[in-house]
Design a protein that fits this description.
Blueprint (H helix, E strand, L loop, with lengths): L16 H17 L25 H24 L17 H40 L4 H22 L2 E6 L9 E5 L5 H7 L5 E5 L3 H9 L7 E3 L6 H14 L6 E3 L10 E2 L12 E10 L14 H9 L4 E7 L11 H16 L2 E2 L13 H21 L1
Parallel strand pairs: 1-8, 2-5, 2-7, 3-4, 3-5, 6-9
Antiparallel strand pairs: 7-8
Pathway: Lipid metabolism
Organism: Cucurbita moschata (Winter crookneck squash)
GO cellular component, one term: endoplasmic reticulum
Length: about 400
């Protein structure tokens, strides 16, 4: 029997008819999963450009191939990274004929009954808050302790009205935080409502990104009265100023407890990105706080790239309820010989274990910026040299 010629399959060649059905099925399944998985074939050279090795492997050969490998690895990394910041789509509705009238009734109740009632509750809350906060802030300037105490209670009150406007079902576990010097609270971060949910129980002084619009107005007028600290990612000088403010704040016995979200950005409550080490270099005890939202009625993740915070609040106010659990965990201190980075990872392990989050080794700031081309070139050069060294050792 004669040997039949073997036809090699190339990415750019036409697929055989026998494979077209399977390929279509796989493509349909991938689209249903809605995952941004990269096509590795897009990062490989075409079959015509592949050449057989003709001699000893040289450094220039590795340099030629390293960008391709780097891009392929980068695609896989991006796939894992972007999952941390994707809004998970709701479960598909079962469009049975006998369930459709119930769904229509639910839409009517949520948008025509619950939503107006919640707007009314929030409006009443703001009227009560502003009619009390403004006189307290202006008339009690000579009585700092009394003014601070009243302002603290009023901020807790307005946060309670916000939670009520979502029909918030929040269960707190553990002892309520107290005002003590040299302690800092750190929590995982899903949305700006994390701060509101924690604030209705205890008036924390939070460190947070400065926002524009009406949120920025609230930050600069109301929240600064309880000692909140703001920063701007685009200002490099802000880091030194904020670090000094943090050190000064944790030393004060009468200051509100300091709350930090060390991830630095909102993550979708399924993953946890790297913690910044700033909160763990203050030389004080760290109190972990784990927050876990139940998606039974609404996904509380705020995707700031796709919606404003106003639209995020409207989404919450038109849902049935916001359900979550909050755990105040045991305070932790830096162990002998432990670095701040190791301390941060240990705290992250505690929070992830309690809230059921998956740890990923990515920096959340990459959500806002990408490495420069020069940095990527240096990484490619380092990768090629390490591979060459490995081959020489063998």
């Amino acid at each position: 029997m004669k040997n039949q010629p073997i036809t090699r399959f190339r990415p750019d060649s036409q697929k055989p008819p026998i494979m077209s059905g399977a390929a279509a099925s796989l493509k349909s399944s991938a689209s249903e999963l809605d995952l941004d998985r990269p096509n590795i074939e897009d990062y490989l050279p075409s079959g015509s450009s592949i050449q057989e090795p003709t001699g000893k492997l040289r450094l220039r050969d590795l340099l030629d191939i390293s960008p391709t490998l780097t891009e392929a690895a980068g695609a896989i990394v991006d796939d894992s990274f972007t999952r941390c910041f994707k809004s998970n789509p709701p479960e598909p509705w079962n469009w049975n004929i006998y369930l459709f009238p119930l769904w229509c009734c639910g839409v009517v109740v949520r948008y025509l009954i619950l939503f107006p009632a919640r707007v009314l509750i929030l409006t009443i809350g703001w009227i009560i808050f502003l009619s009390t906060f403004i006189p307290v802030n202006l008339l009690l300037k000579g009585h700092d302790k009394l003014r601070t105490k009243l302002e603290r209670s009023l901020v807790e009150l307005i946060c309670s009205f916000f939670v009520a406007s979502w029909t918030g079902v929040v269960k707190y576990h553990g002892p309520r935080p107290s005002m003590r010097p040299k302690q800092v609270f750190v929590a995982n971060h899903t949305s700006m409502i994390d701060f509101i949910i924690l604030e209705q129980m205890t008036a924390f002084a939070v460190i947070m990104q400065k926002h524009p619009g009406w949120v920025g107005l609230l930050q600069s007028t109301i929240l600064e009265s309880i000692g909140c600290i703001w920063f701007n990612r685009t200002e490099l000088k802000d880091r030194e100023v904020v670090a000094k403010k943090l050190n000064d704040h944790v030393q004060g016995a009468d200051n509100n407890p300091l709350l930090i979200f060390p991830e630095g950005t909102c993550v979708n409550n399924h993953y946890s990105v790297m913690f910044k080490k700033g909160a763990f270099e203050l030389g004080c005890s760290v109190c972990p706080v784990a927050i876990k939202y139940n998606k039974i009625f609404v996904d509380a993740f705020w995707n700031s790239r796709k919606q404003s915070f106003t639209m995020h609040l409207l989404q919450l106010m038109t849902s049935w309820a916001v359900v979550c659990d909050v755990w105040y965990l045991e305070p932790q201190v830096l162990k002998p010989g432990e670095t701040p980075i190791e301390f941060a990872e240990r705290i992250r392990d505690i929070i992830c274990a309690r809230a059921g989050l998956k740890k990923v080794p990515w920096d959340g700031y990459l959500k806002h910026s990408r490495p420069s081309p020069k940095y990527r070139e240096r990484k490619q050069q380092s990768f090629a040299e390490s591979v060459l060294q490995l081959l020489d050792d063998k």
